[in-house]
Design goal:
The complex is a heterodimer of chains A (112) and B (138). Chain A has a single domain, classed as STAS domain (Transcription Regulator spoIIAA), CATH 3.30.750. Chain A is 44% helix and 34% strand. Chain A has a five-stranded mixed beta sheet. In chain A, strand 2, helix 1 and strand 3 form a beta-alpha-beta unit. The longest helix of chain A has 16 residues. Chain A is globular, with a radius of gyration of 13 Å. Chain B has one domain: 2-Layer Sandwich (Heat Shock Protein 90). In chain B, a hairpin with a 2-residue loop joins strand 2 and strand 3. The longest helix of chain B has 22 residues. The radius of gyration of chain B is 15 Å and the shape is globular. Classes of the chains: A alpha/beta (112), B alpha+beta (138). At the A-B interface, helix 2 and helix 3 of A face helix 1, helix 2, helix 3 and helix 4 of B. Chain B: It comes from Arthrospiribacter ruber. Chain B: Keywords: ATP-binding, Nucleotide-binding.
Amino acid sequence: MLEIKNIKENNHDILLLEGEVDASNSVELDSSIQQLSEEGATVILVDASGLEYISSAGLGVFMSYLEDFQERNVKMIIFGLKEKVHQVFVILGLDKLMNIKKSKEEALEEVK
Amino acid sequence: MKKRLRLYCNTDQLVNLRQFLDEKLRHTPLSEIDSLQVILAVEEVCANLIIHSHECNPTEFIELDVNRQNGTIIFEIKDYGQGFNILEYQEPNIDHVLKTKRKGGLGIMLVKKIMDKIEFESNGTKNTCRLFKNLESK
């Protein structure tokens, strides 16, 4: 089960993820990010504090936006990852490629 | 305790797979972090078969057996049909995944990083992939 909420907070878009991302639902994550991207979001904060699991399908979605967002100066920051989920990013070194912050405060600090 | 799971080829089944594996791993010395990674690796192989070898045809199935042997937990994944030889598959590197914006390609990388040993055999109709994880490696 994956639940995605899109919250507008001040000038930021926050994608709140709850549950598990796998090959059955990664397309939902993809369309949520795609939608924000099409709306012209320049800052996308991904609140992953409610994320219990992510498989390669979900990692692949985040990866597929990195180059585009870098070219277009869009900041996507993932924050609040539980340690067990964070470690999945670490296995492939994706924690070095993506902008990952421990807390919402740290994420907001980055986009001040 | 049930050690075998039949998984019909639909990605909606993956959640059942995780529950099954979670129960099996609960009785091992693996930490929560390691258990999750083992679940992930087994799921990656199964998802790959479901999506690519069986094109999500829900009338087809794959079978998973879990066994413990001398401090190692072994996951044996069997499917029938066009095999996927995980050992011969050349996974792309991360830079390539990034540049081509492809959403796949990371799964097999994860399996190879997480598991201690991987075997594959096929007789042309039945394919067997075995994933080994040492329980006392840490």
